[in-house]
Amino acid sequence: IFKELCEKALDNYENSILNADELNKKIELKEKVENFLNWLLETNEPIGKTKGGNFFVVEIDNKTIVIYSEGVERFDGIFNLNLSIFMELLKCKDEFNNATEMFKKVFNRDYADRTHTYYFNLVKKFKAYEEKQLTAKIENNKNNDNSLKPYIIIIDEINRGNLSKIFGELITLIEPSKRIGEKEELKVTLPYSGEKFGVPKNVYIIGTMNTADRSITSLDTALRRRFEFIEMMPDVSKLSIDCEGINLQELLKAINTRIEYLLDREKTIGHAFFISVENLESLKKVFKNRIIPLLQEYFYNDYALIDAVLNKNGMLEISVENKDYLKNMTEFIESDKIVYKFSDSNNWNKDTFIKIYK
């Protein structure tokens, strides 16, 4: 995926620095000739005309262009042209009046044979075809935006993998000074395909990191030098201040302040948990299915600390069990041990949540 993205980005980068003429020259002559000959085959377009009739390209391969000339009995009207000779003739930018003049200039040949006429007309046809293609391309470029565009790849939770192994030699290639288009641009040879590969300057790698899962302190120093680190802490301003009378901004701020003191700031809860909360019922669901399980994980089921984070708002209550079940376990159980359980979420109300921050 990254290689494909870089190829598209490189094509955009190269096009962004070319004008229409340079863009046309970018395509290799061989590719142009191939497109031209395929067009002649597909359309059955006549190359030119002799006394006997029109002549056409009827077959092509890597070395030969096969011509059929109407009204010619010799060789049943079939003539083979050498593809290499045709390519050499195209490389000459001079204009010629006839086949003899053309072969004299390019190959220093004074004699002429019948095939020279076919070569001459084929060259003329190619130039006319190219002129038409260039005109169409210029018109197309007027409508297309060839300005430099950013190509972005996003790697979610990038710090959960072994980054040195994931990037490998890309570690060097993604340096700003080593990008394609910079003075110190660098390419490597890919081990399997043998292709040359580099990273264009308009490719951007964005990696997200959840520091609650794995600290960024374990990141390779070489990798740190090649990325800018932008901290995205919980932003309570994105939340409602009146969700059926509950201030979600104050609620999250209160919870995170306590978490930061009991644990650390990397464990604070993100505002994304509450973005979709629209009413009391959806807030209950978020707490029951997401916030409370997260707190259980953070505090290793130390319910006294969880109760403190929730400001003893009633979501946790002391469990009163039948003591008869424990009568033969007194030597194993601490006499002052308190067992907590979560109260029924159906009984949670507006005041349950307001109590968290007041």
Automatic annotation (TrEMBL):
What does the record give under GO molecular function? ATP binding; ATP hydrolysis activity
Q: Where is the ATPase dynein-related AAA domain?
A: 105-227
For this protein, the record's Pfam families field holds: AAA_5
Output the InterPro entries linked to this UniProt entry: ATPase_dyneun-rel_AAA, Methyl-DNA_Rec/Restrict_Enz, P-loop_NTPase
**Which SUPFAM superfamilies does this chain map to?**
P-loop containing nucleoside triphosphate hydrolases
Highest taxon of the lineage:
Bacteria
Protein's recorded name: AAA family ATPase
State the organism named in the record: Campylobacter jejuni
